[in-house]
Design brief:
The complex is a heterodimer of chains A (371) and B (348). With 371 residues, chain A is mainly alpha-helical. Chain A contains 17 helices and 4 strands. In chain A, the strands form 2 sheets. Chain A has a two-stranded antiparallel ribbon with strand order 1-2. Chain A has a two-stranded parallel sheet with strand order 3-4. In chain A, a hairpin with a 5-residue loop joins β1 and β2. The chains are: A mainly alpha (371), B mainly alpha (348).
């Protein structure tokens, strides 16, 4: 996943600058540095963290297991969400905090479809692809709802999505009459666990496909450039013939598709759903991934690969914390500290102050030398 | 041309009433319309005064939280950590009373201390480092949630006698009692928390209306730069708004604790949403500069009246309450947005 990505800015060579400074200037510096820190910490603390072995799973298939595989596997939902969240952030300058709740809706819809309205089903009642497509359509509608509030009613994104954040899980419970459907069909769980005969978890393949798809879309369509232009200045984009409102709406609908895919992966891991617990706090991780990837949370330019890398770093952090037996309920407190550190370091005021300090020390040196 | 000409007199009438008052009037009218229609069409419990007082009893903490939220929203910010702070205060208070031999005084100190700490940190980050308030308070919310489970994972039930005496204290409201089925007279009552909450509302109303600090909240929210030019310290004002909001969240936590009498991870869950919804229904604009704690007070009442109406109509499953709050929030956001859009077009 760590495909080397060249930021166009970095191609401009500044020969007079030392190598280290040029590295720091790169957008991907923060996520790569964070990843390196985590890797070094784990190498020192316990090198067996990186061991990958082949074990038999409950069905008797030989599958890969190990912390690294688990990071790649469990980060799948987050990576997919982070891609959509990056687009939304870039176009509207705000974040969608309802992604966890709408993931619950997607999961609920898909489970209701494949269970055919029953509480438990041993065989899928509907073609899986059709069920997933219905799930995608449902979350696209909710995405369009959020997008319309943001784009056409000029409501701040985080407050507009607060509505779905409040209601989403309740709607998910309502869709299934507050029952908890369980599907025992093994083919349903292929997407969340393993395909027969393949030792690599399926979510990794799905994530790779989604990344490939977005790479193609960003390369061959104008979506990326339009999104950035709207995020940087909506008014001048409008004067240049773009429709900023529609582009904002579009990014929210795209996020809806990402949410449905993430929700599908999450429910097919277990074949069941818990409305209040599924994908809890994932909105925080998704926003964190975008910030960690070096993207400005106030919109504008974006680097989707930074967010993807950021998502893997967060999952790496989570897995590391779990390994040292931090209880899952206490995890948010640690992550909140990381978020605060990150936003403080990337705040323009702090940056300019630090730059000022550097200039100050340089000036001090020069005066000393002069003496 | 003809359409603008026909609209002109109505727009003038709008301009005569300030935004704050217009939205306040809408809120008060909505509340009375809701409550009266409930009394007329549903009858039953709604006709008893105690039913109304129970809305206050159950929402004393929410009233305080929502007032704090309104103040931050008036300065143009937002704070979504208040619900989690409530939960943390309850849990810390319960653990202090049960396991560390604390008393009422220490609980109050802990509550206000936690609020103050959150306010200082969040206020500094928002006001002086200019980080988006939503991100800061989102992190604050997760930090408080995590800390609550670190303090105690299990629910803590309080058996401290002094605390229970305050919790069970009933303040009888004269003249509003009713006879029960046996013909006995049952006096109407409110809990201690309600009195504190109402005092807080009155105090904040006065502060916002008549003090220099209160006026500067509106100035900063209305327009950062012109407030700066008027000689108002914008950073300090925003900082103080966040400190005040988190302090009120601490106070709200104490009131919540007094109402439920236990520490639980689920305490105050979703209260930040209820507080934001109440503020918005009460006529506080998200864009800042407009709002009123009196409106917020009626916002809390409206929100809970509609919740009661929905549940007495037979939709009493837990999820309806959330969907109702969200629908109300959505409705009022759209109304606000339309009011703002019309105002902007009329200016042009």
């Amino acid at each position: 996943m760590t495909t080397p990505v060249k930021d166009p800015e970095t191609k401009v060579k500044r020969p007079d600058e030392p190598l280290f400074k040029r590295l720091v200037r790169q957008q991907l510096f923060i996520p790569v540095a964070a990843l390196a820190l985590l890797v070094i910490f784990n190498l020192i603390a316990d090198p067996s963290f990186f061991a990958v072995s082949i074990k038999e799973n409950s069905l008797g298939n030989p599958v890969l297991s190990g912390n690294i595989i688990s990071v790649l596997d469990n980060a799948s939902e987050l990576v997919i969400l982070a891609i959509g969240m990056t687009l939304v952030t870039a176009s509207s300058g705000g974040q969608d905090i309802s992604v966890g709740a709408t993931m619950a809706i997607a999961g609920s819809v898909i489970l209701r479809m494949v269970c055919g309205g029953q509480v438990t089903a041993d065989v899928m009642q509907m073609n899986l692809l059709l069920a997933v497509l219905i799930g995608i359509a449902a979350t696209m509608c909710f995405g369009a709802f959020n997008g319309a509030l943001v784009a056409y009613f000029n409501i701040q994104p985080m407050v507009a999505t607060l509505i779905m954040y409040t209601a989403g899980r309740s709607i998910a419970a309502w869709i299934n009459n507050n029952q908890l459907p369980i599907i025992n069909d093994l083919t349903f769980k292929y997407a969340g666990t393993f395909l027969p005969g393949i030792p690599v978890p399926t979510p990794i393949f799905i994530t790779a496909l989604v990344i490939l798809l977005f790479w193609l879309v960003l390369k061959f369509t104008t979506l990326g450039i339009y999104t950035q232009s709207v995020g940087i200045n909506a008014n001048s984009s409008r004067l240049n013939g773009l429709d900023p409102k529609f582009i904002k709406l579009l990014t929210y609908v795209i996020l809806g598709v990402c949410v449905a895919l993430a929700g599908f992966i999450r429910v097919s891991r277990s074949g069941s759903i818990n409305y209040s617990r599924i994908a809890e706090n994932i909105e925080m991780d998704a926003i964190l991934a975008v910030a960690l990837g070096g993207n400005a949370l106030s919109g504008g330019k974006f680097n989707i690969y930074g967010s993807i890398l950021g998502a893997y770093v967060i999952q790496f952090l989570t897995t590391t914390l779990y390994k040292y037996e931090v209880p899952s309920t206490a995890l948010p407190a640690y992550k909140a500290v990381v978020v605060i550190l990150l936003v403080v370091l990337s705040a323009p005021v702090v940056r300019s102050k630090m730059a000022g300090l550097r200039l100050q020390s340089k000036a001090d040196k020069m005066t000393k030398e002069a003496k | 041309m003809t359409t603008t000409a026909s609209k002109a007199p109505r727009l003038k009438a709008h301009r005569d009433v300030s935004d704050t008052n217009l939205l306040l009037i809408i809120t008060v009218v909505v509340f009375f319309a809701l409550y009266l229609s409930a009394v007329v069409f549903l009858g039953g419990g709604f006709t008893k005064p105690q039913n109304f007082l129970n809305i206050l009893n159950n929402n004393a903490s929410l009233i305080v939280l929502a007032c704090g939220m309104s103040i931050v929203m008036i300065t143009g910010g937002i704070d979504i950590s208040v619900g989690a702070v409530t939960s943390l205060v309850c849990m810390a208070g319960a653990v202090n009373l049960e396991q560390q031999g604390g008393n009422m005084l220490t609980v109050i100190l802990i509550g206000l201390g936690i609020g103050l700490a959150f306010g200082l940190v969040q206020g500094y980050l928002v006001a002086y480092l200019e980080i988006q308030p939503f991100i800061v308070s989102l992190a604050g919310m997760f930090f408080a949630k995590g800390m609550t489970t670190i303090v105690s994972k299990e629910p803590v039930r309080v058996t401290h006698e002094g605390f229970l005496a305050v919790k069970e204290a009933r303040i009888i409201v004269p003249g509003l009692g009713a006879n029960n089925k046996l013909g006995q007279y049952i006096p109407a009552y409110v809990e201690t928390g309600v009195v504190i909450a109402l005092l807080a509302v009155v105090l904040l109303f006065c502060v916002l209306r008549w003090t220099k600090l209160g006026r500067s909240f509106y100035a900063v929210g209305g327009n950062n730069q012109s407030a700066n030019m008027l000689g108002i310290n914008v950073h300090r004002t925003k900082f103080l708004a966040h400190v005040l909001c988190s302090l009120l969240a601490g106070l709200g936590g104490i009131l919540y604790f007094l109402h439920v009498g236990s520490g639980d991870v689920a305490n105050g869950a979703g209260d930040e949403m209820n507080a934001i919804a109440s503020s918005i229904i009460g006529g506080t604009l998200l864009t800042g500069g407009v709002g009123n704690v009196a409106g917020t007070f009626f916002g809390v009442l409206s929100l809970n009246t509609i919740k009661r109406i929905v549940s007495s109509l037979g939709f009493d499953e837990a999820w309806w309450s959330n969907i109702t709050v969200a629908a109300m929030l959505c409705l009022f956001l759209v109304i606000q947005s339309i009011v703002l859009l019309r105002k902007n077009t009329s200016k042009q």
